[in-house]
């Protein structure tokens, strides 16, 4: 039985509705994680480091999809809550069209200038060729990847999170199988990893296009788009926090790599890459919750249902706090196994990765509140507060920490930078929650 956006949500119903989005985000993160495992174990440390160097750029470019998806789904869900279904479909069609055009332009430009880009991100020697090859192949499917990011949010807004999950699972499984074939069996090296990811991204990005073009029983379908600059600007404002999050994370990850190259060389970059791959999966659960919950919040906000807003806020905070403790405990227990999966072939690299992951994992205790806080205000169509939280969390505080802490604590300063940055952000997030409660009636 499908759960509708308009329903009252118990804990069980809320988790059932949001679980597909969580699994969807986990499978999305598996793309790069599986690449990392196969590249590290079958191609080598240098190739693994090169993927880690170029990945921040590719993820930063794909941020356009997250911005339009999260910001647009909030606006479209609010419009659905107001009872304007046809107008919501026009907005939906317009935003997907803009994402496709923007993605194509960015893909072409990135392909042309990829070699210069990887050198700017710190690649040198053999790493330049590795990074350029992986990056250019990835550019072929970059538009599809952006659309995949867009549809992750719109499947939820359409009331079809389970269908979105099926698409992502199909794409993720394709990536895993092709990685094993291209890298483990056929020995295509780093190019094999890129081709596997490219194929899976085409599945994740283009299958939803086919679905929404056909007649379907969801709340959304493609119609002739009507371009409304006001709606597009509002979408950009709403989704600016997600754009800022992805761009900032890309910049900060590049900064981490540069700092680690100075302190620990190629081993440092490889260790950080392994930590970040595991982090992708853990944090993806928080991101999936935020993506799945946002359209529900937007719908009830648009419908003026303050009682349900209070219900969603309180239940979400409880779930996220408990899940943060569970993830922290799991990270500490599983750190040896997870580190060995990526870099078990090198004793020194394994020890560095294990220590780094255990220190880094402290952030899991609080990061979920900050992610939900940013998404919550996006869902309320308050893009400014959402952007401020994301800007402080993913850029300002982390940049300050990663530049200053290593001066006193060396590599341990890099591993702990994320936790201190998240703690500082939590203070700001809590302040916004308290100050905005009378305006939106969620407390």
Automatic annotation (TrEMBL):
Primary residence: membrane
Membrane topology: Multi-pass membrane protein
Location(s) in or outside the cell: Cell membrane
Family: Belongs to the multi antimicrobial extrusion (MATE) (TC 2.A.66.1) family. MepA subfamily.
Transmembrane segment boundaries: 14-34, 54-76, 88-113, 133-151, 163-184, 190-213, 276-297, 318-339, 359-380, 387-408
Keyword check for Transmembrane helix: yes
Organismal lineage: Bacteria, Bacillati, Bacillota, Clostridia, Lachnospirales
Keywords per UniProt: Antibiotic resistance, Cell membrane, Membrane, Transmembrane, Transmembrane helix, Transport
Name used for this protein in its record: Multidrug export protein MepA
